[in-house]
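Board notes (copied after class):
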Amino acid sequence: MEENIENAQIELLKNSGLLSEFVRNSGGNWSITELESLMSRIKEQSITIHPEKVVAMLEAERTALSQKAVGSNEGEQAVSFDDLGLRGKREFLEKELKKRIR
């Protein structure tokens, strides 16, 4: 019974988006103060999970985010700015910004 409650709380936390938002906003690096703030936000959502479990979930989220970042860079070609003129540089940077904004 207790395991079912814990699993439900874990699903609730995953679905809340708090963890992925936290990892994205922190860039995968966070301080103890930021972690304490996250724990407070989790408690505000009436989610009760042991802090060690939350940290483990954050680590998994960090790993997933870094793998996603590596995967999104696959297939991209390296561009030598030395070979581009001013117009080419501007067009390249505009495309990169549009990709990242999406």
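Comment from the instructor: The CA atoms of residues 61 and 102 lie 20 Å apart. Residues 2-77 form one domain.
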